[in-house]
Design brief:
By secondary structure, the protein is of the alpha+beta class. Strands 1, 4, 5, 8, 9 and 10 form a 6-stranded mixed beta sheet that branches. It is globular, with a radius of gyration of 19 Å. The protein starts with a helix and ends in a 37-residue tail after the last strand. The structure holds the ligand Nc1nc2c(c(=O)[nH]1)N[C@H]1C(S)=C(S)[C@@H](COP(=O)(O)O)O[C@H]1N2 and molybdenum atom. Ligand MTE binds next to loops.
C-alpha cells in the first residue's frame, strides 16, 4: 500500500518546484499574473501613439508606425516564460504580436549596431544586446493567451524576451533606439545586472564581470 501511495503521489505531479527544469535558479512559480512596474500606468492615446525606430538606422532616417499600421504588421505566436527578478516566474505563456525580427527587417540597423535601447512611456528603458533583441522568440507582444493585454500589463505593446529577466521587457513600448555601443537602461543604472540572464542568475550589477556592461 505504501508503494501504491507513493506512485499516486508521483502521478499527481507533486514534485518540488525546484525540480521543474523550466525554472531558473532561485525562481518559483506564481498563481495568477501579478502587476509589477515602477510609476503610474500610462493612458493610451490612439491619436498620438507612435512606435518609433531611431538612432543608428541603416538609412539614417527614423521610422514610425501609428497604432493602426503597427497592428497590421505580420504577427507571430511564441510560448515563453516570464521571470521577474523578485523571484516569481510565469511559465509557458502564449504571447502574440510582432517579432522583433520584423521590426529589424522593416527598419534595418546600420551594420555596426551592437545594442538597442527599448523605450517605454514615461522614460522607462532597457538596454539589450542586439543578439538578444533579435532572438527568434523576442516579440513586441500585444496579446497573451489570445486576449489583448490589459493596460496594467502593457497595452498596447510590450516587449517579451523570454530568455532574460522581465525588467528587460518594457511594457508600453514607444520606441527602439539602435546603438553603436552599450548604454544602461532604467534598472541597469539602478542596481540591476546589465545582461540579466536568469539561468546565470545575473540579478544585480555588483555581480557583473568585466565586459558585462559599461562602467557604472
Ligand atoms: N514600462 C515598464 N515596463 C516594465 C516595468 C516597468 O517598471 N515599467 N517593469 C518590468 C518588470 S521588473 C517586470 S517583472 C514586468 C512585469 O510585467 P507584468 O506587470 O505584466 O507582470 O514588467 C517589466 N516591464
Ligand atoms: Mo520584475
Amino acid at each position: 500500500m505504501g508503494g501504491m501511495g507513493q506512485f499516486e503521489h508521483q502521478q499527481q505531479g507533486a514534485r518540488p518546484e525546484e525540480a521543474d527544469p523550466r525554472l531558473p535558479p532561485g525562481q518559483r512559480t506564481q498563481r495568477g499574473w501579478p502587476v509589477l512596474h515602477y510609476g503610474p500606468v500610462p493612458r493610451f492615446k490612439p491619436l498620438t501613439w507612435q512606435f518609433q525606430v531611431f538612432g543608428a538606422t541603416a538609412s539614417g532616417e527614423k521610422q514610425s508606425w501609428d497604432h493602426e499600421r503597427f497592428c497590421a504588421l505580420p504577427r507571430i505566436t511564441v510560448h515563453g516564460d516570464l521571470h521577474c527578478v523578485t523571484r516569481f516566474s510565469m511559465l509557458d505563456n502564449e504571447w502574440s504580436g510582432v517579432a522583433t525580427r520584423t521590426v529589424l527587417e522593416l527598419a534595418p540597423p546600420a551594420p555596426d549596431v551592437t545594442h538597442v535601447m527599448v523605450w517605454a512611456e514615461y522614460g522607462y528603458s532597457s538596454n539589450l544586446r542586439l543578439a538578444d533583441f533579435a532572438d527568434e522568440r523576442s516579440l513586441f507582444a500585444t496579446h497573451r493567451g489570445g486576449e489583448p493585454l490589459t493596460v496594467e500589463h502593457g497595452f498596447p505593446v510590450r516587449l517579451i524576451v523570454p530568455q532574460l529577466y522581465a525588467w528587460k521587457g518594457p511594457k508600453w513600448v514607444r520606441a527602439v533606439e539602435y546603438m553603436r555601443a552599450d548604454r544602461r537602461g532604467f534598472w541597469e543604472e539602478r542596481g540591476y545586472h546589465n545582461l540579466g540572464d536568469p539561468w546565470q542568475e545575473q540579478r544585480y550589477s555588483y555581480q557583473e564581470r568585466p565586459g558585462d556592461g559599461p562602467e557604472l
